[in-house]
Every structure is written in C-alpha cells, then in structure tokens.
Amino acid sequence: MNSRFELFSTEIFYEIFDYLSTYDIYHAFINLNYRLNYIINIYPLKVDLQNISRLKFDYICYYLRPEQVISFIFSDDDMGDQVIVFQRYFPYFKYQFINLRSIKFIRTDDILFDLPYSLSALTFHGYIYVSQRVIETIVKQAKSLTYLKVDCFHVLQSIDITFPSLNYLNVGHVGMKIFCCFLKNNESSSNDYHSLLKNLRSPINHLKLSIENENLIDSNSIPNFDYLSHCLTNLTMTCLINKTFSFEYIQNYRMKLLNLKSLTIVIKLDLIDGKQWEEFIRKTKIIKFNFQFILSENFTFTQSKSKLLDSFRSIFWLKEKYWYVGRNKHRSNQNTQICVYSIPTFLPTCINYTRDCYPPSSTVPSNDEQRIFYSRYIENLYFDFNKSIDDLPNYRLIHVNSLNLSGSTLPSIDNIISIVDLNQIKELNLSHIKNISIGQIHLLLEYIPNLNHLIFKNFIPLFKPPLHIYSFTIKEWKFSDDLNLFCRMFSYVKSLKIYINSLEMMIELINRLKYLESILVWYNFEKHAPFFSMNWLRRNIPRLRRKKFTCKEDDYYMIISIGNNRKKNALKFLIKF
Asked: pTM score, two decimals?
C-alpha cells in the first residue's frame, strides 16, 4: 500500500493549508516536488502580513504568485513600510493581482492606491487621521465595493459619490470621535450621520456603527434606521453616549426594520426586563440577538441583583433560543456600572482571575458551564498571588494565549495547573514576580512546551532559556547588567523587546545577535531626531549595511525588522557613499 504523503488528494492539502500561515505553507512544502509546487501555486491564498519580520516578508514575496491571492492584510505594527516594500516586489499591483477580493490596512503609513477591479472589500483600521489618498482610493472602488470598514466617519462626509453595490458598512468608534471634531471645525457640514448613510444610496444589509459622543447627532434620532427597512438584515450598534433610553423607545424604531434577522446592541437602559424583550423578539424576524445593556445610575444593584437575571430564565431564553445572559459590575472612579449581557458574545477575553468574579453570575445551566466559560479562547489571563484564591474552579481554562503572573514569589505549579492548561500558553509574563529563582523559572517552563514569548522585568544573569523560546521582552536594563553575558545567553533570539540605556547598546545587540529578525527598543530618541535616519543606521551598524531592513520610530521607541542580505551591487553603493 502506497502511503506517501505527496500522493494525498489536492483537497486534503487544501484543508491542511487552511490551518497554516502563508509563510508556513511555503517554508514547509515549496520545492519538495513538482506536484506540491503545483498544488501550492493554485491554492487561493489569504496573505496575512501581521506580526511578521522582514525576513519572512521577503520570503513570502519571493514565492508569491499574484494570481492566486484573494486577500491581503498589511500592518506596520511589527514591520514598518510594508506597503512601500511590497510595491518594490510588485510594481504593477493592479494588473498582477487579478483575483484579489479583499484588502485590509492596519495602521500603515502608506496604502496601495491603484487597486484591481476585482477588489470588493476594503478595510482601513486604526487610522486616527485619514488622508486624501485614502478617500480617493475609496472613491475609485465605489462601484465595485460590497464591504467597507473605516474608523473615521468623516470619510463618508468627504465623499460625494454613490456606492451602488455596498451591502456591508462598518464605522468604528474612533471615527465617530474624529467626525465630531471635524464637524466643529466645519459649521456648514451636516451633523447627521443618517443623512450621510442615505446619500450613499447603497443596499446596506449589514450595518455596524459605534457612537460615543452625544454632540454628533440629535440623540432622539439615533436608533432610527427606517430608511433601510427594505434591505437591512443585520444591525450592530454601540451607543455609549450620556443618555439613558427606555425599552419602549428602542422597540418603536426596531419594529420598523421588518427584514431584520440579526441584532447586536450596546446601550444604556433605564430598566432591563427579559419578558419585554421576549415579547418584542416574537413579533420580529430576528433569529440572532446579542446585547450589552448598561443600567441607569439610578438602578440600585444591591436591592435587585438576585432578581436581575430571573426574567431571562424563561423557556424562551433557555430552551427555545438557548440564549444565555450574564451580569457583572465594573467600578470606574467613584461610579459602579452594572451590565447585563449576552453570553458568550460579550464575555471578556482578558480576565483578572483574582479580581474579577469568574465565571460571572449567569443563566448558563451547570451542565454547560465547562463548554461556555472554560473551553473558550482567553487572550490574557492575569493572576495576582498576593491575594488569596478562595475556591479552586471545577474546570481548567484550556485555551489561554497569554499568562501574566504577579506576586512576591512564584506560586506552586500545582496551584497554576489547577486553574489553567499550560500546554496552550504562548506568552508568559513574569515581570510582576518580585523574587524568583532560575530553578523556579526552569521548572515552570517544563510545563509550558508551546511557549514562544517570555517577559521579564530585568535581565536575570545565568538564566539560559530553552531553545524553543525565541522571543523575549526585557522591560528594564540596569547599568550594572552585563551585555556580553546577555548576548551569550540569548544568542539565538529572533525577536527582542528591550529597554536600552544608549545607542551603543542597540548597535551592539543588532551586531552580535546574529539570528535576530526583529528588535523593539525603548529609548528617548527625541533628542537624536535631527540626525537619526535609515542612512545613520546603515553607517553605524555594520550588520545593517549587508541586510535589507525596515525601521519604524517614534520619540520613545524604535522597531527594526531585519531581512536577507542585500545585493552585492547595492552593498558596494552603500559603502561608497
């Protein structure tokens, strides 16, 4: 029986590729044989360039076949100038990527201006200010766009064109704040976002809006989307203005959206009654309902907490819909905010286990607690072992990405593994442990086999990390610390975030850590701003004269991402000048 791996069907390879990044696909399978190359080159690629070094970026661009790419995500967070470097590889982007459907730009300093006709989904995320270039790009794609996500609402105010095919519009809260400032400086502008939406003349069926400033619009018209009643099927609205709405008021407008099937709402209410919402839902076509209701400050939590969830325990909520509801309270300054919310949609992904009540009070049946509260993905889990943990949980959290431990000493392994499955941890933060020994660290790391990022407050002499950990953060560097010893103990590090006390220290780290692909350094670069540049880095750091690299800087930090060797003729030019 022939069981050679390369004889698997194309469909099986496609399923494998669906779980891998673009870099991993190329690194693992490219150039093994002709058939695998053929399968890779016809696989529809979704290229995500987030959290990637210049070395891996160049590797992807070398093997990438433009016609196979259906989506891109660009981000300058870990590698600066991604778009600029990418255009050097593909100068005729519009005509090369003929099957591209979606592009997402995340805080990039530049964008791809001339886009393929096939592109129908466009996202600009994390932009505090949107340039004229972004607006012109959106206008160019107006006829073909079916999906648009922007963080700046004034983009729509700046566009005098219709979007005949647009059916998904997402406007973030950052954009609403900026839009409000924009209106204050432009008295002739309409301050009604409903008017802007109407002017798009789009058959919008998915709408997502976030409103955080009561000066943006007459609050009495906020929930009124009846002009979209013929097409709107999915509505997500976050309304965090300083106004409390009544149930009757919300119901009056929602009843006009006759085709609405999915409703997600975050809003401040004067009263929460599951029976009222049940009666409302039964009169509509809504089949998916998620909410986070913030109770009015006039609500007395201590008097009503036992009854707050009772109205959500009916057969309708628990048996017909399986819609579970939770309750918690947050203290900010002198105010206590009480929330009632849908589970699991509004469960937090960052948990302070020793401060927060977890799992929260809810209507979830006891036989479903493990699946809903403990088997879900947790981005960040924080433990403060200076505080006592009264009761150990019935189940362990099994999908935690980042574990942050705090206390005078490192807790026992038994205490930790009784709460969280350490096999899934990718990042471990020990920077808040005051007294820790090398033996304790190594013992803990033996239980975390998939760890790839380790965070310390200070450099710990004589600690040599395991080989499978290649990414580190050192938050503080003392003048008495031994840089030579650090470079020997961490010689194979690929990614480093570190506080430096001089530019000479940064130069030494980049030159000596030969496997280093990315380094973020914290330093007061503001005083060096007049002369600091890419050319300065090349002149003063011998390794960067030979390597391709990108640099992203601010007044107090710098990210350098290092790639492959430069071409010989380019190297000669740099040495000459």
From this structure: 0.87
pLDDT category at 573 given cuts 50, 70, 90 is very low
Q: What is the DSSP letter of 394?
A: S
Q: Where are the alpha helices (DSSP H) in 301-408?
A: 301-304, 315, 369
Helices 22-29, 54-63: inter-axial angle, 10-degree rounding? 70
Residue at token pair 């493990």: 370
* Dihedral angle computed from the Cα positions of residues 223, 229, 233 and 239, in that order, rounded to the nearest 10 degrees: -10
Rounded mean pLDDT of the chain? 86
Confidence of residue 533 (pLDDT cuts 50, 70, 90): confident
- Give the residue-averaged pLDDT of 150-163: 75
Tell me the average pLDDT across 481-501: 94
Q: Verify cis geometry, omega within 30 degrees of 0, for the bond prior to 344.
A: yes
Domains located in the chain, CATH noted: 349-451 (no CATH), 487-576 (3.30.110)
Looking up tokens 């150039």 gives 31
Cis amide prior to 466 (ω within 30 degrees): no
Which distant-in-sequence residues (6+ apart) come within 8 Å of 258 by Cβ? 229, 285
Ordered DSSP codes for 119-172: --EEEEES-SS--HHHHHHHHHTTTT-SEEEES-THHHHT--S--TT--EEEE-
| Residues 6 or more apart whose Cβ sits within 8 Å of residue 88 | none
Contact 341, 293 (CB under 8 A): yes
CA 459 from centre of chain:
29
